[in-house]
DNA sequence: TGACTAACGTACTAGTTCGTACATTAGTGA
DNA sequence: TCACTAATGTACGAACTAGTACGTTAGTCA
């Protein structure tokens, strides 16, 4: 019997379900984003955790459900960011530009999220479809866009025929592509779309594009 | 010894290197696009072919090189389509719109290509980097864009500060996202971006967006 | 016509990978 | 304080998977 004051946990074993669960999700997010669903290894995820593979199955049930949980958490982060959007006090043009910039920034700051969404699309969104939390959840940004658009159209600043979901798709497309296709685009055209010194350039380009589209007088056909 | 007239090849075995190779590439394209690189199974690809797994290794060397060969062929198809682009006789506005539409149509017609590119981005374009055929190949469309832009800017129709690669990225982003993110977008917002009855709508939207951006008078900062 | 080789097929293996049976312990409430 | 359970760890197995060793045959050219 050693008289040395041992730390309270001789085996280094602490119990903290919440921490363990969160740590698994953190590591799984990185691994799935890095290697795709099939490419990610359950053993590898476990190894990068302070716990064991057993715990992944204990808490999540399996690889598939783990990926779904990763997606659910990733989407909840973006939804939270969108909820903090505060642009209603701006005039429509400034509000839309601000919204586009926030979207732009979020995509840039969360490349792992972009990769997860790309991967989920390869799997035809089957995990989203199977998730109760994610089905048809929409996004807070959509409501904001709807209100800004309406205000801008009422005042005659914006062209009348633009739909909120379409505008959201347009903004997302630009932000998403820039990050998701960074590597092939860079390899083929020799230009890094995510280079730091190009950041302001593309941020402005997005805003200019959206505003130009919204304020152009289109020939009615 | 049967006296029945056997077909010329009693074992059904015909030799045709070109056909075998092409068939492997066809099947591999579908399988990689469907399941991703790690998710695709060499045995499955072989099974869907009239030949055997042995031939995949005989002609391509391995799974990795097979994927590279699939990518090379897929890119050569789009480059060929772009080379047939004939818009130089149009005025700049019409030419850009036409170019956008051709890009739009090509993306819609080749969803497997989109998926392969998404997958290659998950792998950070390592196969493109390793391929002699694909490194920095650019695209014929770029040269076309360059010429139209120059002409439009010279005549004062277009704003001066637009770069050809950037414009190509803008057009590609819209076309690519619509196909690549079809499933997650549909699941989250309940709208199918590739629904046939929405096709003309989005095609027009892309053209309007690009022309609006190119002809807008931007406040210089 | 017969020898040579490119093209092809079969059967197998070594290593991997998801998942689980079973054992153990930390905390907690009676 | 003790029993009970949620939380955790270990060891293992069945199935899969990329890749290969070895044998065979169709076409062609000397």
UniProtKB/TrEMBL annotation, chains A, B:
Regions recorded as binding DNA: 41-60
This protein's record includes keyword RNA-binding: no
UniProt keywords, alphabetically: DNA-binding
Top-level division of the source organism's lineage: Bacteria
Domain HTH tetR-type: 18-78
Protein name, per record: TetR/AcrR family transcriptional regulator
Organism: Streptomyces heilongjiangensis
Lineage summary: Bacteria, Bacillati, Actinomycetota, Actinomycetes, Kitasatosporales
């Amino acid at each position: 019997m050693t008289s040395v004051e041992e730390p309270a946990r001789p085996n280094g074993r602490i119990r903290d379900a919440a921490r363990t669960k969160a740590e698994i999700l953190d590591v799984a997010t990185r691994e799935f984003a890095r290697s795709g669903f099939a490419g990610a290894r359950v053993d590898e995820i476990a190894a990068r955790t302070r716990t064991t593979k057993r715990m992944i199955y204990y808490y999540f049930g399996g690889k598939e459900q783990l990926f779904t949980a990763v997606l659910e958490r990733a989407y909840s982060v973006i939804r939270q960011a969108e909820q903090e959007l505060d642009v209603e006090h701006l005039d429509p043009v400034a509000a839309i530009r601000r919204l586009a910039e926030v979207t732009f920034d979020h995509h840039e700051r969360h490349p792992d999220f972009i990769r997860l969404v790309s991967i989920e699309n390869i799997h035809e969104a089957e995990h989203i479809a199977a998730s109760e939390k994610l089905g048809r959840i929409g996004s807070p940004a959509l409501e904001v866009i709807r209100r800004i658009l309406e205000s801008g159209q009422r005042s005659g600043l914006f062209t009348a025929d633009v739909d909120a979901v379409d505008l959201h798709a347009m903004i997302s497309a630009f932000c998403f592509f820039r990050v998701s296709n960074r590597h092939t685009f860079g390899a083929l055209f020799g230009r890094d779309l995510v280079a730091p010194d190009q950041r302001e350039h593309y941020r402005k380009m997005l805003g200019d594009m959206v505003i130009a589209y919204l304020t152009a007088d289109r020939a009615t056909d």
